[in-house]
Write a structure and sequence with these properties.
The structure holds 2 protein chains of 2 kinds. Chain A is mostly helical. Chain A is 87% helix and 0% strand. The two termini of chain B are 36 Å apart. The mean pLDDT of chain B is 87. Classes of the chains: A mainly alpha, B alpha/beta.
Chain lengths: 261, 258
């Protein structure tokens, strides 16, 4: 019995120490990546490729998600608030929910699934096929060549994607409000503009930038430290999406609390 | 500076040991590579040959021991200084390690393009001047590594290693997976590269025909250490059981006469 207890204690302790070591390892990687992101030379061609991939090619999925979210939000709000004769708050609820929360979070989750997985798989494959080792022997810093362009592009693109996603989401709500719920277009637009606050846009943009950092750092970390061939690539990809998503949902609460808490 | 018959020591490995957790892979490895010398490292799979090469090029750090390249101590050398030394080396990895996202010509001139600005036309011209020595067609230059065969990828990797005429060449199984004709071509190229530029080479290989074609000196890694070293001819007089196993399939007379 004592042996079993000690065994469980030992295994738990080992896992805990390994967990703490991994966190430490991540922060060392984080520091190094930030250093190389700001250190010239910058590989402009690689940065441009990443901007195209993260920003431009993510637009359809982000646009579609936020558009339908705006539509659903308008319908649900209308149905819920009719009981209290407060249908007029639909524009405000749609606007606030999209700009403060749904826009940044949905964009973050979509990009984590689409781009985070791709980044992790690409870097992990390069790691297990010795391409990263080869880079180091050819006078190129892997951190500067591979990781920095992804971080820069994520920091630039995700806030822009969120701003576009917010606009499309509000448009979705507008279409439902006007064409299905028969709101007056001018009044709806007036209400939307009236309740639009700079702090909501700033908060959404700050969230987006932090999500960009989370997605790129977590994905690059798992990819960069991949091992064990194809299995390692799979593990890196899954882990990057799961951890990025959890961190996005956790950090959105912290940021909201900091802004409005 | 230690010299043999007026030849400079290019790489000197002393008392190198390397282990992964509790698994000792290399123990007290000592050898020297002289200028103009071609050294072949042989050994069974998993004997630590590639680990030794990765220690030399700084991908792995040894647990103890010293590695000197052109009299510069590489162990614990700051990364920026290590990079400068590595730029003078031509290295091929066991599986090619070509960059998937770059075209073959971009792969070949990667190191040079980092140092010197060149346009696409100049880059392709330089890449072509190298691949024609390796029996590759110019059509492959605009393709990606995934669009050519494994044997061609190997040759593109060799082209990348020899681009810029480095004086130290390190090859990890350069002829594995190649047909005998191409393998022989690669061997000839290694030999030429060593002789014409006065370079030195370390080749890790299982291919004994290749060893007899390219090597001035052979080193056997067995049981975590260098258990035998000598010239290719010495192998036939060796009583070392592993050496006997390696040369058994070889038609010795044919190769030596060749």
């Amino acid at each position: 019995m004592l042996y079993l207890f000690l065994n469980i204690l030992g295994t738990t302790g080992k896992k805990f120490i390994s967990f703490i070591a991994n966190i430490g390892h991540f922060f060392i990687f984080f520091g190094s990546a930030i250093y190389w992101t700001f250190k010239p030379p910058w590989y402009l061609k690689k940065i441009f490729q990443q901007i195209l991939d993260i920003g431009y090619f993510s637009l359809p999925v982000v646009g579609l998600t936020t558009f339908f979210s705006g539509m659903v939000l308008a319908l649900q709000t209308y149905n819920g608030f009719t009981d209290f004769n407060s249908e007029s708050t639909v524009a405000r609820i749609v606007l606030t929910s999209i700009t403060r929360e749904l826009g940044p979070v949905l964009t973050g989750l979509m990009v984590a699934g689409r781009i985070g997985a791709k980044m992790a798989a690409e870097i992990a494959t390069m790691r297990v096929t010795e391409q990263i080792d080869a880079l180091g022997t050819l006078g190129t810093r892997p951190m500067q060549y591979l990781i920095a362009p992804k971080i820069i592009a994520s920091l630039v693109c995700i806030p822009i994607l969120v701003l576009i996603g917010n606009t499309i989401g509000i448009l979705g709500g507008y279409i439902i409000a006007i064409y299905k719920l028969n709101f007056n277009p001018s009044l709806y637009l007036y209400a939307t503009i009236e309740y639009l606050q700079l702090i909501d846009i700033i908060q959404g943009t700050v969230k987006a930038a932090i999500f960009g950092l989370i997605i790129s750092m977590v994905s690059c970390y798992f990819g960069y430290n991949a091992s064990k061939g194809a299995e390692g690539v799979g593990f890196a990809t899954t882990s990057s999406v799961v951890i990025s998503s959890v961190m996005i949902l956790t950090s959105t609460y912290i940021i909201t609390a900091l802004f409005f808490g | 500076m230690e010299k043999r018959k007026n030849k400079k020591i290019i790489i000197k490995v002393s008392d190198l040991s390397k282990s992964f957790n509790d698994n000792i892979v290399l123990k007290n490895i000592n050898f020297k590579l002289f200028e103009g010398e071609s050294l072949a490292i042989i050994g069974a799979s998993g004997s630590g040959k590639s680990v030794l090469l990765k220690n030399i090029i700084g991908i792995l750090e040894p647990d103890k021991g010293s590695i000197q390249i052109n009299d510069t101590e590489m162990v614990n050398l700051p990364r920026n200084l290590k990079e400068k030394i590595l730029l003078d080396l031509g290295i091929t990895f066991q599986h090619g390690a070509l960059f998937d996202s770059l075209k073959n010509w971009e792969n070949i001139i990667f190191k040079i393009a980092n140092k010197k600005k060149m346009n696409n036309k100049q880059g392709k011209k330089l890449a072509f001047s190298i691949i024609k020595k390796l029996g590759l067609q110019p059509e492959i230059l605009d393709l990606y590594p995934s669009e050519i065969s494994g044997g061609m990828q190997k040759r593109v990797a060799i082209a990348r290693a020899i681009c810029g005429n480095p004086k130290i060449l390190l090859f990890d199984e350069p002829t594995s997976g190649l047909d005998p004709v191409t393998g022989s071509l690669i061997d000839q190229l290694i030999k030429t590269a060593v002789r014409t530029v006065g370079g030195s080479a370390i080749t890790i290989t299982h291919d004994m025909a290749s060893v007899f074609r390219i090597a001035d000196k052979v080193m056997l890694i067995d049981n975590k250490t260098i258990s035998w070293s000598g010239t290719p001819k010495d192998m036939f007089n060796s009583t070392n059981a592993k050496i006997q196993e390696f040369i058994k399939p070889i038609n010795s007379e044919f190769l030596l006469n060749d």
